[in-house]
């Protein structure tokens, strides 16, 4: 156990930074999830709607799955309640009629316009621990890590 304790308590700087990012991310996601919960909304469903909006209001299910990090079969399951609630609908792809696209409906747009400002305010408040220069540096560093592919 002593060897294990030394191993888990003395991390190389890179590993310490990684786990600090993971813990901080989990904490910040928790801030956002508590907001969604207080609104009676599923945060994962909002994320799907946001990704569709970011894509211009329509997206292929496979592209959506890739954006949110789920498998193609799982995206179908995740979309069902959003379609039942009228926030999205399936439409034929104008370029390839065999494909279906997911379209953000007016109700979906209205939901996002209603709930996103409050969520963004909660996140902004949590990020106020950093000044503008620190946030720019953080963004720069995170983007640098994103560019490095295995």
TrEMBL record:
InterPro entries xrefs: HTH_MarR-typ, MarR/SlyA-like, Tscrpt_reg_MarR-type_CS, WH-like_DNA-bd_sf, WH_DNA-bd_sf
KW Translocase (keyword) present: no
SMART domains registered for this protein in UniProt: HTH_MARR (SM00347)
Record flagged with keyword Transferase: no
PROSITE patterns recorded: HTH_MARR_1, HTH_MARR_2
Pfam families: MarR_2 (PF12802)
Residues of the HTH marR-type domain: 14-147
One term of GO molecular function: DNA-binding transcription factor activity
Protein name per the record: MarR family transcriptional regulator
Organism: Paenibacillus ginsengarvi
């Amino acid at each position: 156990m002593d060897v294990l304790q030394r191993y888990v308590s003395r991390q190389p700087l890179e590993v310490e930074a990684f786990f600090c990012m993971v813990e901080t991310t989990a904490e910040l996601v928790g801030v956002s999830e508590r907001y969604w919960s207080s609104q009676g909304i599923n945060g994962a469903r909002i994320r799907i709607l946001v990704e569709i909006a970011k894509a211009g209001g329509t997206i292929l299910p496979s592209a959506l799955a890739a954006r949110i990090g789920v498998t193609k079969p799982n995206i179908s399951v995740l979309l069902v309640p959003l379609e039942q609630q009228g926030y999205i609908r399936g439409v034929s792809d104008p370029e390839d009629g065999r494909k279906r696209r997911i379209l953000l409906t007016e109700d979906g747009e209205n939901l996002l316009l209603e709930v996103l400002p409050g969520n963004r305010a909660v996140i902004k408040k949590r990020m106020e621990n950093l000044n503008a220069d620190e946030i720019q540096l953080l963004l720069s560093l995170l983007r640098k890590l994103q560019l490095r592919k295995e």
